[in-house]
Amino acid sequence: MSPILGDFFNGLLGVTLLVFLVIFNLLTRSRIGEDGKGRTNKDSANLDRECVIAAFIAALFFGVHPVHAEAVDWISGIMELAFTLFGLISFQLFVNRAKNKERRRLALSVALFSMALLSKETAVVLLPLFLLYDLCFGEEDWSTTAPYWKYLPYLAAVTIYLALRSHALGRLVPIDMHPELSTYECILNVLPLFMQHLWKLVWPFDLNVFHVFHPVRSILDPRTLLGLFVSLCYLASLCVSWKRDRLLFFALCLILVPLLPLFYIRAIAPVVLAEQHLYLPSVGLSLLIGRIAVWAASRESSIRYALCFLALISICSFSAKTVQRNRVWKDNLSLWGDAVKKSPESAFVHESLAGALLNHGRMDETIEHYLMVLENDPTPSARTYSNIGIAYSAKGLKEKAIRSFDRALEIRPDYAKAHVGRGIAFFEEGWTDRAITEFERAIELDPYLVEAYHDLSVAYSKKGDRSAAEAARRQVSKLDPAYYERKH
Question: In 3D, which of 283, 220, 245, 250 has the Cα closest to residue 89?
Fold first, then answer.
């Protein structure tokens, strides 16, 4: 097994086992019978066997779902895994609270809920899920105040978290990431976004690390109308399942509720559709599959065989796609190469691939993709021009390199790395004094930039100033003792 596949399955296995336990618990507690209303004519042994098989199938779907690749393979996705892991354990303790140990289990559940909050702010969605579970399967008398007390510790944890967040960030929500959209347009875009998230869950074959956001601006846009139709169908399914099948209703809620924070578009980064955000909603999809499996167990053999065949095809397809997707996530070169094919209009994707190509020394391709950035980005950054200068310099095109560094410094005069790059170009042109000026300016802007001290020592050595060169080398060794060892 390759290291990337090993990391994937090591990270996912524990969550998959937990998903199996949660789904098995929900299936058995709902006591699904043929009428779907909480009654059963089967004995407990048969019911348990059916629920084990259904939970296994559901957890298998969760374990091989391709949409998990981003959350598990990407280091930033660890927040999604952690919040889901802590949240599911907290939910399991909440569900399994016993009369004689209710306080102890609730206390541990609240502690894990708090850890989920600290892992990712969207863990606040767990609280309404707890309430929905009690509404679906609980036996509380909601006309009294007694059932509400157990939610107070969770509300206290949320309040403390929000206070800490507000103190640390100076605000509860991030800055507006999409100022170009009006409030009306933000609301309109919820409809197609909801549809796209659902589609990625049920058809995870067109996966991409960077889905370009093309906002809708009119309610008559076909994407808006289709999103409205899908949303109304989903709402109708919620209403019908609430009356006929509470487990089905809870599964649909488990898909929907974790997505709600993502619909506040103003707070979401340019990637408004990120596959890692579907990690917890996929638990709801798995529960839905488990519910269908229990239903199929009581149907005639032709229906069971047809659904088994469909499940087998789906699991094999998902598994193959997951293996292929993990290969894409192997390194930056393969990841952004795949993204460029799927989002060729994105300047960010071209810049990310160009950076990977630059690190691999493929300068012609690096320049090609950076030029694509300049075509697609009306306001390219200083770093973009600086990296183009590095690529031109490596190709021996010193004049173009210097012009690129000049442009970078016009945009951001305090960009130390651009000064270093221009200094290297000057040095290779034989303009040693001008190079020294650039390196010293870079050090003035960033006293911890090791490369600037190294290049300064080389320039002083060429000029014949041994004492200044030695002083610069000592500073290199002081900042990074292993620098020269790595260089050689």
Answer: 283
